[in-house]
Specification:
single chain; about 450 residues; alpha/beta; 9-stranded mixed β-sheet; 11 helices; globular
Length: about 450
């Protein structure tokens, strides 16, 4: 096993390779004044991972607790999932249903989780407003589409659950209403409108947050991988190619790129999974009208291996999918070809439209399908914030603020349910995680296409 973890092909962890994504090309300049670590430094808190969670933690440590953290990011700012996701911000973070949460831990804890989810989206907006950077918001609300007629009952059940537990009243659109108000597709049979989502430019957000965090006094070091970690007597030495950071407390905010080989404390807790995106050239007004989709909007479907789709402000279509187990470059070429074919089947009017950008990366799953913000050691000096299940834009930002509170010895606000304030449970056979994922994918694929 490599320091990185090595569940996938080495190219997935090669930070010298550009991502090649749309956001990379349209995300504005890199934050100014940041450089790799050069020399040894001491800090009260060291943060490994410079994505949404790590940056939010460093920002809030400085702003709310007067602690100047050191952030170590192995790649450039935005190289990981924070700069390559689909730009959906809303109540994500878990694959466990609200009804299951309420059954296991009670309605109050389920409501506490839902409130925390909503606070994440509000926090993203407020950070951008406070620090005056543009999120390039395009599209309000997520349209959760039944990809087969038989999946309509899932939308009804979901609507009923959030109304019963949280008092939410979400709209259901039958197929005809959806075609009149949103889009047409042979794989769209009505939708549930989830009002708490918005679309944004994830690279502009992570770069803006990095600049704001640096301006608050935190030290950010991109292109600074941690190659060794020594801990004893409550002190931590994080070794990098350019120097050593010594800190009293450490936050790991590395999600799907967690370096499992760095220490047994990190190993076997997480399951990275591939997610892929293609983006078309700008569609003409006539092309958009031909498919009945003419305004920026967010769509996800009821597949277990879901498609997530956005019509962007410049008229491009972003088409994303979960799945795949081979992360080699050859496999990516095959995956791209499959996605181009499926795009044409979901939206026949756009079959054959040229693709300008294609990329993929790792989302992060936990065995219990929950996000986790938990201490990894008895002395409470090592904190982990992980496992957003493909929905970490708002939730990861909120978790970063909560991590800052825990690192400062305070209670997170808003309060989080106890079931997330623990480390992720270990997988019983970590070496077989991809085999287990393969089995799950086979089952999901059958259900998605036939049930």
């Amino acid at each position: 096993m490599t320091i990185e973890g090595g569940l996938y092909h080495d190219s997935q962890y090669d930070r010298s390779r550009p991502v090649g994504g749309y956001w990379e090309a349209h995300g504005g300049p890199d934050p100014a004044g940041l450089a790799p670590l050069a020399g040894d430094v001491a800090a009260e808190v060291a943060i490994v991972g410079g994505g949404y969670t790590g940056l939010s933690a460093a920002y809030h440590l400085a702003r709310e607790h007067g602690i100047q953290a050191v952030v170590l990011e192995a790649g450039r700012i935005g190289w990981g999932a924070s700069g390559r996701n689909g730009g959906f911000c809303g109540p994500g973070g878990t694959k466990l249903g609200y009804a299951t949460m309420a059954s296991r831990w009670g309605i109050q804890e389920a409501r506490r989780f839902f409130d925390a989810q909503l606070s994440g989206g509000r926090l993203v907006r407020s950070l951008a407003a406070d620090e005056r950077f543009d999120l390039e918001i395009a599209g309000e609300g997520e349209h959760y589409v039944a990809h087969r007629p038989g999946r309509w009952h899932e939308l009804e059940n979901y609507k009923g659950t959030v109304q019963r537990l949280f008092g939410e009243r979400w709209e259901l659109w039958r197929k005809a209403e959806m075609e009149e108000r949103l889009l047409r597709s042979p794989e769209a049979h009505g939708c549930l409108v989830v009002p708490h989502y918005f679309g944004f430019n994830p690279m502009r957000y992570v770069r803006g947050l990095a600049a704001a965090t640096s301006a608050r006094g935190a030290r950010l070091h991109p292109e600074t991988p941690v190659t060794a970690w020594q801990h004893a007597d409550g002190k931590h030495r994080l070794v990098t190619p350019g120097g050593v950071v010594t800190a009293g407390r450490v936050l790991f905010a590395t999600n799907g790129y967690t370096p499992e080989g760095l220490d047994p404390m990190l190993a076997g807790r997480l399951l990275p999974a591939l997610s892929s995106i293609i983006v078309t050239r700008p569609l003409t007004a006539a092309e958009r009208t031909a498919q009945g989709w003419t305004r920026p909007a967010l769509v996800a479907d009821t597949r277990r291996l879901l498609f997530y789709i956005r019509l962007l402000a410049d008229g491009r279509l972003l088409f994303g999918s979960r799945g795949g187990l081979d992360a080699s470059l050859a496999a990516f070429a095959a995956r791209r070809a499959w996605m181009e074919r499926r795009l044409g089947e979901v939206f026949p009017a756009w079959r054959g439209v040229p693709i300008d950008y294609a990329w993929w990366g790792l989302v992060c799953l936990a065995r219990d399908l929950l996000p986790h913000l938990g201490w990894l050691d008895e002395g409470k000096t090592v904190l982990g914030a992980w496992a957003y299940h493909g929905g970490g834009t708002g939730f990861g930002t909120m978790f970063g603020r909560a991590a800052a509170a825990r690192l400062a010895g305070r209670t997170p606000d808003p309060p989080l349910p106890e079931f997330v304030l623990t480390p992720p449970p270990h997988f019983p056979a970590p070496g077989l995680r991809l085999m287990a994922l393969r089995t799950a994918y086979l089952g999901y694929g059958i259900k998605d296409e036939w049930l």
